[in-house]
Amino acid sequence: MAWDEEHLIFADIHSPGTVNNLQSNPSTEVNVVDIFCRKGYRFKGKGEVISEGTLFDEIVSFYKAAGSKHTVKHVVLIRVEKISAILSPAYDLGLSEQEVRDRWVQYWDEINKDSGAARIIG
Fold first, then answer.
1. What pLDDT, in 10s, does the model give residues 71-109?
2. Is the dihedral of CA 8, 98, 35, 31 positive or negative?
3. Cys staple from 40: which of 26, 33, 69, 100, with CB 3.0 to 4.6 Å?
């Protein structure tokens, strides 16, 4: 999530591989994409693993206040250096956002119908 105008954060609940990777190479990329409209953002930057101290306590308190029941082993503070848009190749076909969304809603409705689950978007 966004922590301030320059940083993203995430809590390490059980990601030892990610934490180990960031400790040896802090370069990181986070992609956030709306699965239905197939648009999003790529955030590139440097991640810092934090395991104690005031900032750690503040971030953990934020997650607990939001309802997290998980034990947070570390938090990762990412200083964002570059942001770029992510756009599905479906838009290269001239489809509108609504057409792309409708296709993906239909796709997931079919999967849910086959599994007996309820429609996920109303």
1. 999 999 999 999 999 999 989 999 999 999 999 999 999
2. negative
3. 33
